[in-house]
Amino acid sequence: MMADLTNGNGLPEEQLTALGTQAGAGDGLAECVSSDRYTVAALTDEASRAGVNASPTVLVNGQEVEHSVEALRAAVVAAP
Questions:
Q1: Are strands 63-64 and 59-60 parallel, antiparallel or unpaired?
Q2: How far apart are CA 47 and CA 26, in angstroms?
């Protein structure tokens, strides 16, 4: 069972996968949901290694982006 961000029980993997499929997620969704790669702990560790120490923090290609729609749009458009 996948944990949610509020430390509750979350949705069962099968239900989460079904909802994602209904929303148009690709074939790799089930593997993604069942892996440990995207758990809160794993993402927190990854963010710490990237130097993130505050929220919200937005990185595009490893570079912090100013907190504005315009800056985020420009960073995404400029990204390879």
A1: antiparallel
A2: 25
User: What pLDDT digit, counting tens, does each position of 24-65 carry?
Assistant: 998 899 898 888 777 888 888 988 998 888 888 888 988 899
CA distances from 62 to 1, 31, 47, 73 (A): 31, 25, 10, 15
Find out whether 5 and 44 touch, Cβ atoms under 8 Å: no
65, 72 in Cβ contact below 8 A? yes
Q: Rounded to two decimals, what is the model's pTM?
A: 0.47
Which pLDDT belongs to residue 9?
A: 65
DSSP string, 41-71: HHHHHHHHHTT--SSS--EETTEE--SSHHH
Please tell me the distance from the alpha carbon of residue 46 to that of residue 2, in angstroms, as a whole number: 19
Band of residue 1 on the pLDDT scale cut at 50, 70, 90? very low
